[in-house]
């Protein structure tokens, strides 16, 4: 036992912070945690969960149209935004309650207050002072906005989950996965949707075939995707918002949403005064054990800006607590992390892009398949699925797998296990196909792409 109130105090009750608190307590530590908003963090409150619910909602109209080809008929359903909003909020409140219960069940003291560090062992919780041997900062990230005239009139993904009225038109600025996902959501729910990206193709960092396939399908579904385009200023008028573009043109919409990246949420916590080293974007600098430049202060999750993904933050929390509280040094493995983008159609990917593989291995073999899913043969949609395998020729190991199409995330999760195990193309080929499925294409591609 120490003279401190807690062995570990966690600032931020998102996915990483809650997991760290729970696991440290299971190892016998006395743990407290604070959160200034809702327990669950970005993923549960303003990210993965509500966004996925919105994606489901936005696909209903398209599913109904497909149903006609299968003999179903009747009036098309109508969308009611207040109903979706209320049901989404009810689910988020339920999850928030479950997270609180998890902390309570694991003997973690929850303070629903903002935490500010006074010194390396002392935290001010809005007037309540507590002390801790070790402090973990897991405060996540926050939407980033450019400094342009009129930026105060726009929304971010945060506000998109709480709009008072459903718009007739929207401009989404950005080319990353959040911008792409919300373009699909708004478009699917009947909003005239324009997406602007300042560079030549969306989804920077993804495989080029993935980027091109998603852009083609988005445009086919009605999204006005404009690349090499950016906004220089925004004006609010009686008719809505008017955006002036880099080339001098203008666009008008009811809502303008910026999804141009997220920055670590580390300001106003007293970290700078304690000498905690940070990068220019506010990301906290940590070593392989998540220790900052101050010995007893640690950090993980989005606020260290390594991989801003919920499962990664949870894995970092597991590694941190095993190392610090269970005498089991546990390095974090960031290689071959499978990810999904819930665009329409969705993306699933694990391993290297073709570009990365060519740099690392030189001689690679590419296998690709592009087809119309069986569902759409009667459903009538022209949406296509793209699948791709990247193989290191020297070892025959599959080093990258990418998919754009229905259930991509579900399919890639299983393939992620194979890639983590170092599966070869011969082993893919020796795996029996499940027919008829889209997933069988990954084990039946025999001829390399030209």
End-to-end CA span:
66 Å
For the sheet with most strands, the description reads: 7 strands, mixed
Average predicted confidence as pLDDT? 96
State the fourth-level CATH superfamily of the largest domain.
Answer: FAD/NAD(P)-binding domain
Spatial shape: globular
Helix content: 25-40%
Strand content: 15-25%
Low-confidence spans: none
What name is given to the CATH topology of the largest domain? FAD/NAD(P)-binding domain
Estimated radius of gyration = 24 Å
CATH class of the largest domain: Alpha Beta
Label the CATH architecture of the largest domain. Answer: 3-Layer(bba) Sandwich
Main structural class: alpha/beta
User: How many E-type strands?
Assistant: 21
Q: What is the count of helical runs?
A: 13
Number of domains: 3
Layout of helices and strands:
Layout: E1 6-11, H1 15-26, E2 31-34, H2 41-46, H3 48-58, H4 60-68, H5 81-105, E3 108-111, E4 115-119, E5 122-125, E6 128-137, E7 141-143, H6 157-160, E8 169-173, H7 177-188, E9 192-197, H8 208-220, E10 224-227, E11 231-237, E12 240-245, E13 250-253, E14 255-258, E15 262-264, E16 297-299, H9 310-325, E17 339-341, E18 347-351, H10 354-361, E19 364-371, H11 374-379, E20 385-392, E21 398-404, H12 408-420, H13 425-430
Parallel strand pairs: 1-2, 1-6, 2-3, 6-16, 8-9, 8-14, 9-10
Antiparallel strand pairs: 4-5, 5-6, 7-15, 11-12, 12-13, 17-18, 18-21, 19-20, 20-21
Concise synopsis of the structure shown:
The protein has 450 residues and is an alpha/beta fold. It has helices at residues 15-26, 41-46, 48-58, 60-68, 81-105, 157-160, 177-188, 208-220, 310-325, 354-361, 374-379, 408-420, 425-430, and strands at 6-11, 31-34, 108-111, 115-119, 122-125, 128-137, 141-143, 169-173, 192-197, 224-227, 231-237, 240-245, 250-253, 255-258, 262-264, 297-299, 339-341, 347-351, 364-371, 385-392, 398-404.
